[in-house]
Fold each of these.
Amino acid sequence: MRLRALVFDDDEKIRSLLTLILESRGYTVLSFPDPTCFSPFQEAVCPCPPDHVCCDILITDNVMPNMKGLDFISERIRNGCRGIVRNKAVMSGTWSAVDLAYARSLGCRVFEKPFSVGEILGWLDECEKRTDPSRKLVEWPGVSLNYAGAG
């Protein structure tokens, strides 16, 4: 089972490091500076067919120039996204008590920057155990599924 991960972080070095970690585990990784750079997420409702998911793992920074990670997750859940519901993580170097509580209420794993690679790897182990091997991943026209490191 090849897993798909989405990574959003405006810091190119962190985005590249996360992509490297995920690819070393055999994941297909789509990586962008923020969610507004990935066209399927511009739609108001989930673009995935009912029996498909967009990804197995989502890792996002919280503080990005165009959209906060928590706002993105909340919007996707509200609009019916099934792919980012289970295995989602948000990271930040500037957590407020309100944002931490909100992240946890959305079911996010929270990481403090700078993060420990070991913590990320442990979380990925947990995510892999929760991932249904029979799930179907959506294919997006015009999106290379080996794409990583935009911006």
Note: The chain has one domain: 4-137.
Amino acid sequence: MKMIKAIARKEFIHVIRDPRTLVIILILPLFQLLMFGYALSFDIDNIPTGVYDSDQTATSRRLVDNFSSSGYFNIKARPAQADFAARLDDGSIKVAIVIPQGFEEDLLSDEKAKLQVIVDGSDPTLARVGVGYSSAIIGRFSSKVTAESLYRRGVDITRSQVPVQASSRVWYNPELRSVNYIVPGLIALILMTVTTITISLAIVREKEKGTLENLIISPIKSWELILGKIAPYVLIAFVEALLITATGMLWFNVPMNGSLLLLFLGLVIYVAGTLGLGLVISAATDSQQVASFAAFMATFLPSFLLSGFVFPIKSMPLVLQLFTYLVPARYFIVVVRGIFLKGTGLGVLWPDFLALTAFAALTIIVASVRLRRAFA
């Protein structure tokens, strides 16, 4: 224990005296959380919309008001019909609503009323949402106007209604806030990136300064060096995790429905794996620049693209789906989202905990073997 304490104390001094490391460890995680928490959002509203109403009747104006009051469409322009193409080209509007003359007359006379909704498809996500929202608004409006027309004619509306009525409920995230989905995933992404990069510089720093040879000829063993190097960063990683979790819960109001103890257990295993990966990279490189770049490429890109953080794994090609099983963030994202949003227990999450444990054991064993060769 004396050897491990000495190495840990030495590493703490390195971290405290290195302002770049302090910035990466303390400032960068919170900056990433705030930036991604606000910038990454799947909530699409206030879509810039143009309206051309050639009918100019009370019914057509009510329909436009339905679009405007929904909160999803922001009526920014009422250009002439010929100007819609130019407005869509320059991006000033993303949706164009064209109401032809005779719209009210056709609708009230049980004829098939027609209107046109043009959506900018250069952004597929916005286009899908725009088409879905507009279809829902038009459908509700059509049903309401038809019901009013039948009522004025003395038709019993209740008998003409469909006998099946669907009632929809959303579990785990009733308000459909994308921040509730993103922030737990950010914990996995930020911890994976920051902890791996910081620990990857540990052994490389010794190589560049020429102090690794002193450690090699000292009586310290490779596993003692690993524990001594990891100990300060384990503490730092948990401080980071505490800051990120507290910021997510208090600043972004993300609910915590599960067990904090289970989340802590998951963090212990996950951080052990990320630090082990950092030591593997550190032992395999000879400069801090190469080590930091290799750590970034091995953590951020796979964790961001292939973990299910943003893009659903089921929608990926089969080859990439198989490759995602090698990304540890995939499993930890399931753990943190399950604990935060669903209150899921170990009975459901045990396969992900098992995968994280295997990853941590593998990286630590590989790091120990690499360092043992360096000490040989």
Note: The mean pLDDT is 82.
